[in-house]
Amino acid sequence: MTTGTGAGTTLVVGATGTTGSRVTAQLATAGHRVRAASRRGTPVPQAEPVRFDWYDPATHTDALTGVDRVYLVPPVGDPDPAAVMLPFLRQARAAGVNRAVLLSSSAVPEGGPAVGVVHRELPGLFDAWAVLRPSWFMQNFTGTHMHALGIRATGTIHTAAGKGRVGFVDAEDIAAVAVRALTDVRSPDSDLVLTGPQALSHDDIAAVVTEVTGRPVVHRHLTHEQQCDRLAPLVGREFGELLADMDLAIADGAEDRTTDVVQRLTGRPPHDFRTVLIRESAALG
């Protein structure tokens, strides 16, 4: 692909989150103008902060002023994000946005549950678009995800995924693909399944974390019902059941794959888990 001129302004929704912060930083470093949207309008280096709340339409107009492309992180934990996202996307189109890159998930196909509904509608709303469908984040084990919290608190990762393997992917690689999808002259106009270089089980992950950090970590195998009961107080029963269902899909092999998308769009191979863990191990204390 040919890199664009960067003449436009990109609105990054979720600019303080796991992928949004990295998309913002990489765009700004490359010289692109960025409007960094978050619920508090938090200042972000080399970007224009703006307050944005999916559930507060009064924040949407200002966020879209002067913008011609958007990076979209759906509202976290909402089982029906289309209800708030589609009205915003129609407003964005009317305001002059012509390119949209949506963060979805490898576990959610076009037309599937939750963000899958937004995925289905996106090509009809924008001339240039991409849907990023990354596998599970490597940062789930180093950041603020419940897996990382469990590692810090008890040295335990809890899943109902059994011995199923996942092509865990680095959020830096997701951001690098997003930047290309947002700024290349020719947009992907497709959905892109992003993975790391190898598929690993949660037992494998626990072993690598133990080796790299010196902190004993184990993977506790739960039943679907046990995982639902564990997640319900944390994220609500409906979303907890959805996450537990995704664990079962992993156990059945749904995520046991790797793709060449990171290499193809960025020109370099994706980062492996050990490399990312060494880079970010300080976050585990």
TrEMBL record:
Pfam families: NAD_binding_10. Residues 14-121 form the NAD(P)-binding domain. This is NAD(P)H-binding protein. InterPro entries: Ergot_Alk_Oxidoreductase (IPR051604), NAD(P)-bd_dom (IPR016040), NAD(P)-bd_dom_sf (IPR036291). It comes from Streptomyces pseudovenezuelae.
